[in-house]
Amino acid sequence: MSDQEEFEVEAIGVEVNVQPIELYKVLKIANVVNGGGEAKHMISEGYVGVNGELEQRKRRKMYDGDVIEFNEEYYVVICDTPVGELPEIEEKPQFIPIEPEYTEPKPKKAKKEKKKKQKSEIPTTIDPESGRRSINFF
């Protein structure tokens, strides 16, 4: 027998639209973690295996056919697009702003004069020792 044992397992397919894709993203797409932070934590703590080996690199590149083991479940990466190609995206018409023709500026309204706040009728006193004014709360 060879030093690598092959065995057959039932795996859940995780369809992705681009390859390579990072390991933590595959766990998010498979919906086995609540978010990217949790996925990265699980990977770095050693709870994830890839192709039969323990994997602790969060951004390990995954390709079509790679098998991931997590929480006693197996997942296989499925991708139809070739390596490095981005999936075809329908091109949307781009919005190009058109400058309006020159128009006369609108006349500005006259500004109202602001009334200056009148200081309280009680004169403020200056403390001769510190040179500070007294504080009136009411």
Automatic annotation (TrEMBL):
<feature type="region of interest" description="Disordered">
    <location>
        <begin position="94"/>
        <end position="138"/>
    </location>
</feature>
<protein>
    <submittedName>
        <fullName>RNA-binding S4 domain-containing protein</fullName>
    </submittedName>
</protein>
<dbReference type="GO" id="GO:0003723">
    <property type="term" value="F:RNA binding"/>
</dbReference>
<keyword id="KW-0694">RNA-binding</keyword>
<feature type="compositionally biased region" description="Basic residues">
    <location>
        <begin position="108"/>
        <end position="118"/>
    </location>
</feature>
<dbReference type="Pfam" id="PF13275">
    <property type="entry name" value="S4_2"/>
</dbReference>
<dbReference type="InterPro" id="IPR036986">
    <property type="entry name" value="S4_RNA-bd_sf"/>
</dbReference>
